[in-house]
Amino acid sequence: MIFMLMNLIYPIISTVVIYALLIFVALLVLRLIFNYSDPNPFGKVGRFSYYLKKFTDSFVYPAARLLANFRIDTRLAPIVTILISAVLAFFALQIVWNTFFIIDGLTSAIAAGNIKAIIGFLLYTVLSIFVLFIFIRFISSWFVFTRNTFLGFVKTVTDPILIPFQKLIPPIGMIDISAMILLIIIQLLQSFVLRAFVQS
Fold first, then answer.
1. What is the b/e burial string over 158-184, where b = at least 16 CB atoms within 10 angstroms of the residue's CB?
2. For residues 164 and 179, is the Cβ–Cβ distance under 8 A?
3. Euclidean distance between CA atoms 106 and 73, whole angstroms
4. Ranges of each domain in the chain
5. For 30, how many CA atoms within 13 A lie in the half-sphere containing its CB?
6. What are the tens digits of pLDDT across the range 111-139?
7. pTM for the whole thing?
8. 9-13, 34-38, 156-160, 172-176: the lowest-pLDDT one
9. Angstrom distance (rounded) from CA 40 to CA 47
10. How far apart, in whole angstroms, are the C-alpha atoms of residue 29 and residue 56?
């Protein structure tokens, strides 16, 4: 039963996410080609191009606005969207992996009666929650979400940590680089907690 989630379920989830990302990337590459080829709107290819653009507009539009701010050809927006999607998929898989790692590890530590490992996994959990909240905040700043109490709670929890980083490293267009740097720092702290409490 130990590490069942990590060994059995996580590979399935990661495979689904990777295949979904590959399909999404293929659609955006097609859109990029259509952006420059400008097919006949009355032909089959033109109609397919229209529906493809309509389907992907909500994903590509934020990247197009970012490029427009820097006076870069907005037809290149699918490339930026692909890069952002890859980063988001990577962090999403990291969060899923962390969740399964915590559940499996905490279950194992409790079963063994290892108090030090239990404390380590609890500290690791707190840091993982911060990672999740910062990830949610990063997504909410990139896409348009309606305000609700949960996002307000996420903002309240992350503001004391994130605002000092934002003052040091201001956003580049719509991309909050400070959040990404903070995520890296928290992951380093997680590695330290594992070495100090779990692996020692």
1. beeebeebeeeeeeeeebbebbbebbe
2. no
3. 50
4. 1-86, 114-200
5. 16
6. 999 999 999 999 999 999 988 888 787 77
7. 0.75
8. 172-176
9. 8
10. 11
